[in-house]
Automatic annotation (TrEMBL):
SUPFAM superfamilies in UniProt: Phosphoglucomutase, C-terminal domain (SSF55957), Phosphoglucomutase, first 3 domains (SSF53738)
Entry cofactors: Mg(2+)
Protein's recorded name: Phosphoglucomutase
PROSITE patterns, sorted: PGM_PMM
Species of origin: Flagellimonas lutaonensis
Amino acid sequence: MQDILKTAQSWLSDFFEPKVKQEVQHLIDNDQEELKERFYKNLEFGTGGMRGIMGVGTNRINKYTLGKNTQGLSNYLKKQYPNEELKVVIAYDCRHNSDTLARTVAEVFSANGIKVFLFSELRTTPELSFSVRYLGCHAGIVLTASHNPPEYNGYKVYWTDGGQIVPPQDGEIIDEINAINFEDVNFKANNELIELIDKEVDEAFFEASVKNGSFGAEGKDDFKIVFTSIHGTSITAIPEVLKRAGYKNVTIIEEQATPDGNFPTVESPNPEEPEALQMALERAEEIGADMVVGTDPDSDRLGIAVRNLEGALELLNGNQTMVLMTKFLLDQYQKKGFKGNEFVATTIVSTPMVKKVAEGYAVECKTSLTGFKWIGKMIKDFPDSHFIGGGEESFGYMVGDFVRDKDAVTSTLLACEIASQAKANGSSFFKELINCYVQFGFYKEKLISLTKKGISGAEEIKQMLKEFKENPVQSVQGSPVVWVEDYNTSIAKNVQTGEEKVLHLPKSNVLIYETADGTRVAARPSGTEPKVKFYITTNAKLEKAADYKMVNSQLDAKIAGIIAELNLGQ
């Protein structure tokens, strides 16, 4: 506690604003527990950049923590590009303080002699990723906490390729940040170096989104879409992109169309949560819409609902959406003729079905750690290969490489193209997904996500993962465990034969058990939220589409059994 107190007292110097000093002194005098939460560590970069609760302290998002990040990044840029005119681009989302924090970040860059392109208003994360290369920048920043609760904000860093920073670069930048004190941050803006941007970049991004997400789908005049931005940034892009692609029957949920960091109509602005799309689903039923699309605050994740076999709207999970998107893209490439250097991408906790689909087209499927920064890195690491598309189970997908992060804007258009064409052919998005299951195997997944907040929560998550490793699972629903993949040690071991394989991915706190029947159970801490996540995937053969309901029920029962057997119930 003495170290925490010492850190907090350093925030009482005259460098910090009077109201900040006053709040710190109040915590020192009156609230030791809250003081500990705010100062026991520095905020860290996770799978989606740096996210945290806004407020005073080293473990909070504020002017000083982001200023220090930006100063460290400025120092790093100068070392990496000593003889160049440095340029960065900054975007921000709908969250409280995002606009003022973005301005602060711009001012610190400018104070260090770096040219800044700052979006004049909120914009999507995919547009920020696109704009890095479009404007020829050395780096990009977006102020967002994605789908986290309203009290959060965040800071994501992109590099010259438009992708998020990855090792060893992220570690080198963190070393630069850690090498300086708060008092080293230069907040004295050079406003001549800050240029506001908007329509020109918007136009280029819309054009690229339509080009990459359109495939000449038929039936657009007869295809009804209900769209909700859930109070986020996608309202600035998705309606316009759909319009330019020829979709006229788009109903926007007006109650959720105004950007609002309180997210007043939902408990969580996360399209992974069914409740977040409830308003759109109700409207869709009223007007007989074919599809519902909802996106998270920074518009990198999308959730969709489509008509099932009974004609009712059914929410799909991220694995289902990415499977059909990948198959559709592969079909389009197959029509033109594969060149042999194409690949698709997925992550270690996403459905194995993506790999099965890719194998069906004799196309390589590359697998990465969780987080789209790793998929972006693949594109950079394999310049002679052609990236078709890729995604992860957490409702993210990327079409082509013009954006180097998950992109709900272009993915929304792609989903509409698939569904509109299917309807025109007398089929549907849902029926096409079932056809996939018949062709490649019926894979079904379930995510168990447990929230554990604060210092005690972090310890609890650490202990849960430790026990999951030290008390290894022997079998799952009667099927013996064959492989144990430990990404902390980079070793996959066949517990039946003793065979070991090296996992050629960076070390990560992920453990995966795979049984003889192909069931997989993975565990990892979230890189962006105070959560521990368990991913269950199982599969069965689907002989014909008519057997879908029966096999679906069997897989549901199996997943319920796994949850009970492993004591993962919430």
